[in-house]
Design a protein that fits this description.
Elements lengths: L17 E2 L10 E5 L5 E5 L5 E6 L3 E6 L13 E4 L5 E7 L3 E5 L5 E5 L6 E6 L4 E6 L2 E5 L7 E3 L14 E6 L2 E8 L2 E7 L5 E8 L2 E3 L4 E5 L4 E4 L6 E5 L14 E6 L4 E6 H6 L3 E7 L13 E5 L4 E5 L10 E4 H4 L3 E3 L5 E3 L1
Parallel strand pairs: 1-24
Antiparallel strand pairs: 2-3, 4-5, 5-23, 6-20, 7-10, 7-19, 8-9, 10-11, 11-12, 11-14, 12-13, 14-15, 15-16, 16-17, 17-18, 21-22, 23-24, 25-26, 26-27, 28-29
Length: 341
């Protein structure tokens, strides 16, 4: 039976590319290595220091050494300020006059007010926001003097601009611009201290003050993106004293390194431009409840057992204990359990 032979140069061979497609933010770390003869390949951090590999016609499995997820994925977080994310705050002027909502639903200023309004910014796009106070939307009147008021009244489609604001925040100062019949105006105030869309800047001169100082109720910014850190989170479980029994306060957070089981369809490597892989974290050195198992080390020379793993109460994490003290006795465990010897 005859056959044909096709010869390719090494430079014509394309390096295999792997991708983890749980979502679009998770990028695998790798380095492309090229030799002088034209051969190139991708060296993936996920496939460094393997414990075992299994290959069949359908699948290939990689068992890695223990490693954190940060070593194989790129961190793609960025700081998003308020305006790009929602947030709440109290507002005051540079003269420390506080913004409050009046009984007639207008907003005004009061020095050291005991009834300060919480303002919430809700982003619509990268530069436009809507404002709320107490769950009620803030809207500018359609006619002069363009008073700002709290109202949930429905607006006609051609009036939506009255509840939209161009929001800017820098150097701990905020401004709010909106569109009126006379043009774009800042939310500002006059001698009567009522907030209206009457602020304007001409030739670098402010017509009516329009700078506000926020006191944040929520975070002023947030890291948004993908953080591949694999954390072991411990919560309080103090049975004897019942402390923190009704809370979810975190007791301790540590970066956990585990073995990874990476799988891929063998056909994907040769047929697809990028081969999809799956990654599973294995609970190596974990008990069935997800906590690190304690370690016992006996010493015949000293007649002691060293118990490590943060399991003893009121003692260090690694403590030698006389063997004779442990016979038919029990040792209190920090997490409320008992270790019997």
């Amino acid at each position: 039976m005859g056959f044909s032979l096709t010869v390719y140069s090494l430079s014509a061979l394309r390096p295999a590319e792997l991708e983890y497609t749980y979502n679009s933010s998770e990028k695998l770390k790798y380095t492309t290595i090229t030799y002088s003869n034209g051969l190139s390949f991708n060296s993936y951090e996920a496939l460094n220091k393997l414990q075992d590999v299994a290959l069949s016609k359908k699948n290939i499995l990689f068992l890695t050494d223990t490693k954190p997820l940060t070593s194989i994925f790129e961190q793609t977080t960025e700081l998003s300020p308020i305006g790009k994310i929602a947030g709440s705050f109290y507002l005051s002027t540079t003269q420390r006059e506080d913004v409050k909502v009046n009984s007639d639903n207008t907003l005004s200023l009061e020095l050291s007010s005991t009834n300060k309004a919480i303002i919430t910014v809700v982003p619509i796009n990268s530069t436009t926001v809507e404002l709320y106070s107490g769950g009620i939307q803030l809207v500018v009147d359609s006619n002069y003097p363009y008073t700002l008021r709290a109202s949930n009244a429905a607006l006609a489609p051609d009036q939506i601009y009255r509840k939209r604001f161009k929001f800017e925040y820098a150097n701990n100062l905020m401004t709010f611009q909106t569109v009126t019949k006379e043009g774009t105006r800042y939310i500002s105030y006059g001698k009567d201290k009522i907030l209206r869309a009457i602020g304007l800047t001409l030739n670098n001169v402010n017509i009516n003050p329009h700078l506000f100082v926020p006191s944040f109720v929520t975070n002023s910014s947030l890291n948004v993106g993908y953080d591949p850190t694999s954390m072991e989170v411990k919560y309080y479980n103090d049975i004897e004293s019942f402390k923190n029994r009704t809370t979810l306060d975190i007791k301790e957070k540590t970066v956990a390194e585990t073995n990874l089981l990476i799988s891929c369809a063998t056909s994907d490597i040769t047929k697809r431009e990028k081969a999809n892989i799956n990654i599973a974290l294995l609970r190596t050195n974990y008990t069935s409840t997800g906590a690190y198992a304690p370690t016992l080390v006996a010493s015949a020379d000293t007649g002691t057992i060293t118990l490590s793993g943060n399991y003893l109460s009121d003692v260090d994490e690694t403590v030698p204990i006389l063997i004779e003290d442990l016979i038919n006795k029990r040792v209190n465990n920090k997490d409320g359990f008992l270790i019997y010897i």
